[in-house]
Amino acid sequence: MIIVNCRQGEKAWYDARCGVITASRISDAISVLTRKSGDKGPGDPTAASDKYAYEVAFERISMQPYGEPVKAWVLDRGHELEAHARLEYESRTGNLAAESGVILSDDRLFGYSSDGLLSNGEGLIEIKCPIDTVKIMEMLTTHDTSEYDHQIQFGMFLSGRQYCDFIQFVPALENVGKHLFCKRVHRNEEFIDDMVTKLLAFEKRVTQYENMLRQKAA
Predict the structure, then answer these.
(1) Measured between alpha carbons, how far is 147 from 27 in angstroms, rounded to an integer?
(2) What is the pLDDT of residue 35?
(3) How far apart are CA 64 and CA 57, in angstroms?
(4) What is the pLDDT of residue 180?
(5) For 63-110, where are the alpha helices, taking DSSP H only?
(6) CA neighbor of 53 nearest in space, from 14, 20, 24
(7) Residue 112 to residues 35, 124, 178, Cα–Cα distance (Å)
(8) In sequence order, which residues have a C-beta less than 8 Å from that of residue 133 and are 6 or more positions away?
(9) CA-atom Rg of the chain in angstroms
(10) Which of 79, 136, 200, 214 has the greatest count of CB atoms below 10 A from its CB?
């Protein structure tokens, strides 16, 4: 693996992710239809999958980020809160988590923006700082992290780690001691194998689109 040490929102962060299939978009990348839609049938890529494939192909050609950029205030808020969440997590668990920027596969086709690698060499952390009260309450009541399964499992796959401590950080709940929710998610090899197979098929589509765009007009 390749580690690019940078902060989210910096030019180096955008550059490292440009033309890369990232963990946060894997759900879109490998999504398929479950019913017939137009000229497509069950098992065919969804519109979201096609759109993401086009975006990555465009980035590989332009060498510039493509699509709607993440709003600056969202990145600033996330980075500030993540720093507090990391310190709170370290204080509560005794685990030390080092920021690690962007983790890339050796071929630089796939990437994961890591929130921290644990010093024990076994784990990593994934921090979410949601605003939506419904989403916050659902996590506190159900402890269901399945929405982030692809991102978390791919992070473990790229980094070689065995578990991920998922963290939800909500400063507004500090007065009742529920501002830091943490759940350990273990590596699932069967899930990873299936995901990687689908991702390789997605990457092949991206390359096909890139080659088509690079072809000279007749």
Answers:
(1) 9
(2) 86
(3) 11
(4) 97
(5) 72-93
(6) 20
(7) 31, 12, 28
(8) none
(9) 18
(10) 136
Residue 41 CB contacts under 8 Å (≥ 6 apart), including other chains: 33
| Spatial CB neighbours of 13, under 8 Å, sequence gap ≥ 6 | 4, 6, 7, 101, 102, 113
**Tokens coding 216:** 């000279």
- Measured in degrees and rounded to the nearest 5, phi and psi for residue 12 equal -60, -35
Q: Find how far residue 87's CA is from the centre of its chain.
A: 21
Strand-pair category, 123-128 with 163-169: parallel
The residue-averaged pLDDT of 183-196 equals: 97
Nearest CA-CA partner of 38 in 28, 47, 27, 50: 47
Q: Which domains does the chain have, with CATH numbers?
A: 2-214 (3.90.320.10)
With beta carbons less than 8 A apart as the criterion, state whether 130 and 170 touch: yes
Chain centre to alpha carbon of residue 125: 12
Stretch 132-161: mean pLDDT: 96
DSSP H or E run through 216 = none
Q: Any idea what DSSP says for residue 122?
A: S
